[in-house]
Structure formats: structure tokens, C-alpha cells
Amino acid sequence: MALDRELITVSCLLVGCYAVASVTLFHFSWVQEIIGVSQIIQDLQRTIDRVAPTEARVLITGDNGSGKELVAKWLHEKSKRAGMPFIEVNCAAIPSELIDSEMFGHEKGSFTSAVKQRIGKFELADGGTLFLDEIGDMSLDAQAKVLRALQEGKITRVGGEKDINVNVRVIAATNKNLQKEIVNGLFRMDLYHRLNVINIAVPSLNERRDDIPVLATYFLKQICDEYRMKPPALEVDALKELKKHNWTGNIRELRNVMERLIILSEKIITKVDIEKFVNT
Question: Rounded CA gap, 215 and 259, in Å?
Fold first, then answer.
């Protein structure tokens, strides 16, 4: 009979996973947990626990969608600066002509559109953490200005005359091989060594396939809670099929897949559903 199929319901899988994962999930916080029971994730969490309380700069590397931003947030949350600002900067999204104003601020009247004073990211992060995401996409000119701020611990607003002391811990992240970028003349070696005191490599989802059942279940419940609907059940064979997939989009792709399955599948997510919907 169809009902004889081996199923794993969300509630059962959650209970089973959390019984194992409870020793690896972080304490309650505004930051989302790092979900996983694999050895590589436990090693990552131990590294965060060791590095976070220090003032060391950290360079986080890993593929897009692997969770670099989440690691940065936990480094802040478990540091002595927790409770102070955590300011994120998407370096790839800032045009080179705006980098000075965005990072260091400007005074009123310093250029045509400067109708009022603006506080830059370094000042906003004073006492806390400045997260420079996609640092590998920052222009060489912008890299030089960030390097000066790191070297001297002070910045000057555009149009300003006085130096402003800033006390920030800088965490940077990139999906690029910065050593290759240095060889190609696209990244400053001196900035690389300023940032790369501690290097944390975030594993891809393909490197942590044992975490896929836990993550799939977590996203299943999270998305169904958002939709205010009862979660479907997951066939064991469906989970096995998910583990075979090549996750080029990493955690981000898995969440999208689970949302797609919730919408397009029936009350039970089967192996056939995975074969039909995952690669679309």
C-alpha cells in the first residue's frame, strides 16, 4: 500500500536532528543559528568560538550562498563588541566615485549634492564591527583608502579638515582567490595581509552533504511557518535524492528548492518530486 512507504515527517525529523545538533547550535540570539551536525560544521563553530572574543581581523572565504555573512555575524555576536553596531558594506555595490562618501562620510557642501552632513560606515561602526562583504570586488583606489583607515585607525570625512578616530573590528569576506587577484594586479598585497590575520573558509554545501537532511527540514518548517501552513512530509528517498544534487548555489539554492517543493508538491514530498522540480 502507498501508506507503507517509509516517510519522515517534519516533526519527527526535527526531534531526531535536534537531539544530535543541540550540542552544536549557538545560544539564543538575534542571529540565525548555524545549522549542521557534520564534522566540518562543528570545526567551523569551534573556530568561531575561539576567534570571536579576540580583536583579530578575519578574512572569510567561500562560495556565494555558503553562509559567509552568517559567520561574520556570529563572530560579532560572540565577541566583546556584541551589543555595539554591526555595519555591513557590500563592496561590490558601491560605485568608485561614491566610495569616499559611503565609507568615510562627508560634510555639508563638500560637493554639489552634499546638502547635509553624512556619517560614513567607519564612524557608524565605531565601537563595533565593520563587515566588508565581497572585498575582492573593491576597486584599487578604494582599497588604498580602506588600507589607510586600517593602518591609522582614523578617517577624514569628504570636505572635512580634522581626523576622526574610529575603533572598529574589521571582518572581510570574499568568494575570490585574493592571492590570484594580487598576482593579476587587482588586489593590494598590503591590504590582504592587513585583513588576513585569521582566515575562515566556509564549506560549500557539496562539502557538507550530511547536513542536507537537517537543513532541508529546517527550511521546510521555516517556510511553512511563514506561509502559515502545515508542513508536508518528506520521504526518506527524497532526502537521499537531495543529497545527490550538485548544489552550485549552496545554502541559498537549497532554501529556494525547499520553497519550490512546498508549493508544487502534494502532502508528501517524494523522490519523484525531487527529480521533477529540483533541477528546474
Answer: 13
- By DSSP bridging, strand 198-201 and strand 164-165 are unpaired
Q: What residue type is assigned to position 105 of the chain?
A: G
- Residue at 268: amino acid letter: I
Q: Are strands 7-8 and 233-235 parallel, antiparallel or unpaired?
A: antiparallel
CA distances for 11 relative to 124, 174, 270, angstroms: 43, 36, 17
CA-to-CA distance for 261 and 259, rounded, in angstroms? 5
SS3 122: helix
The predicted-structure confidence for 126-181, as pLDDT tens digits, reads as follows 999 999 999 999 989 889 989 999 999 998 888 888 889 999 999 999 999 999 99
Cα angle value 49/55/150 (rounded, 5°) = 140
Query: pLDDT (tens digit, 9 = 90+) per residue, 50-87?
Result: 999 999 999 999 999 999 999 999 999 999 999 999 99
Q: What is the pTM of this model?
A: 0.85
Dihedral sign computed on CA atoms, order 73, 76, 78, 82: negative
